Amino acid sequence: MTELLTNVHKHAGGRCGLLVTPTEAHLTVTVSDFTTAVPAKRARSSTAEDGRGLILIEEPTEHWETVLTASGKDIRCAIPLPVAEKPGAVSVSGTGTGAEFRSGSGPRSESARS
């Protein structure tokens, strides 16, 4: 979100809308601004101080898109969320003989640990 908002400040005059919509599988972030300039990737340079914004946006997202609107554009990003553990499920953390098994019923108190 910070990269999207920084881009609005730098390239679109700073006025924008922000909508964050959670679903079971994704967090959808939409940043709306009042310009129709569509973001484009620049040639990568290790010495440039800018030009990496779309790379930063692509990394955590499953999908992103630019949608032109009557008042400007929306940049929409779908960020995958971790799968929630279902109640009663069993998970394993660690490896070897030190592995800890726990049910998905929630955290255990310190006194319940052996």
Question: Can you walk me through this structure?
Answer:
The chain is of the alpha+beta class and 114 residues long. Helix content is 14%, strand content 34%. It has helices at 2-11, 53-58; strands at 16-22, 26-33, 63-69, 72-80, 90-93, 100-103. The strands form two sheets. The protein has a four-stranded antiparallel beta sheet, with helices on one face. The protein has a two-stranded antiparallel ribbon with strand order 5-6. A hairpin with a 3-residue loop joins strand 1 and strand 2 (26-33). The longest helix is centred in the N-terminal third of the chain and has 10 residues, at 2-11. It is globular, with a radius of gyration of 21 Å.
Structural class: alpha+beta
The CA-CA distance between the termini, in Å, is 42 Å
Beta content:
25-35%
Mean pLDDT: 76
Global shape: globular
Low-confidence stretches: 93-114
**Major sheet: arrangement of strands:** 1-2-4-3
Helix content: 10-25%
Largest sheet: 4 strands, antiparallel
Overall strand count: 6
Q: Give the number of helices.
A: 2
Oligomeric status: single chain
Radius of gyration: 21 Å
From N to C, what is the helix and strand string? HEEHEEEE
Topology:
Blueprint: H1 2-11, E1 16-22, E2 26-33, H2 53-58, E3 63-69, E4 72-80, E5 90-93, E6 100-103
Antiparallel strand pairs: 1-2, 2-4, 3-4, 5-6
Quick summary:
By secondary structure, the protein is α+β, with helices and mostly antiparallel strands.
Descriptive labels:
114 residues, alpha+beta, four-stranded antiparallel β-sheet, two-stranded antiparallel ribbon, 6 strands, 14% helix, globular
